[in-house]
């Protein structure tokens, strides 16, 4: 029997009570990691993810924290250390949308999205990086001292009218990821992003939950299928494992080709 690729590693997945985060948590656990399943509000969702992991023979705990609040982030890391001693993998996944036309967008909508999607990633990555540096490489577990995976979006490069706050947050995540990558590489910390395209989750259900909406959405996806959360879960396992050891400071788009500007297939 081969050893699971994340055997004995500890992972924290933020925003893991539903959608992409839940799939990533389940996938990392199936690959051998012990997983902290973070949630902001839905303890029910997080407990269901923990149950699914345990039923499959894995280890997980649910941890409440709003990632945009520094004291809550610090307490979340304390809970991870109490449960599992350290951390090896951070998946900075928590994120939200609060859509509005540009001129109607309130400062509150702007701040809510930047606070969770960008500041939250900073706060969590900072705590994880401190522990990775303190502990260093444990060769039996991984070639790297730690792995940070930022959940970005195709909208780190594709502008998005009606979603300026969200696109700005993901553009920010791109340079946060790259700058952390530059700064932390000498500590053997790997930093990368995943850029999902349209994945069937609660965040975008209006875009796929009727046949008409789904047909419209498929115009933007050359591969002609809307993604599912486990498409991202599988990518996260690879990026967290030594299989991708030399991958650093980059965004892996998992988008069925959405970033290929499909409008240009017949125009331009
Ligand atoms: C957004 C989704 C959207 C997708 C593709 C994601 O980052 O959260 O709402 O469907 O990008 O546009």
In short:
The protein is of the alpha/beta class. The protein contains 7 helices and 7 strands; from the N terminus they run βαβαβαβαβαβααβ. The chain has one domain: 3-Layer(aba) Sandwich (Rossmann fold), CATH 3.40.50.720.
How would you sum up this structure, described in words?
- By secondary structure, the chain is an alpha/beta fold.
- It has a single domain (10-255), classed as NAD(P)-binding Rossmann-like Domain (Rossmann fold, 3-Layer(aba) Sandwich), CATH 3.40.50.
- It contains seven helices and seven strands.
- It has helices at residues 19-30, 43-55, 70-84, 107-135, 164-184, 211-218, 229-240; strands at 10-13, 34-39, 59-64, 89-92, 146-151, 189-196, 251-254.
- A seven-stranded parallel sheet has the order 3-2-1-4-5-6-7, with helices on both faces.
- The longest helix is centred in the middle third of the chain and has 29 residues, at 107-135.
- The protein is globular, with a radius of gyration of 18 Å.
- The structure holds beta-D-glucopyranose (BGC).
- The site of beta-D-glucopyranose (BGC) has 10 residues, from loops.
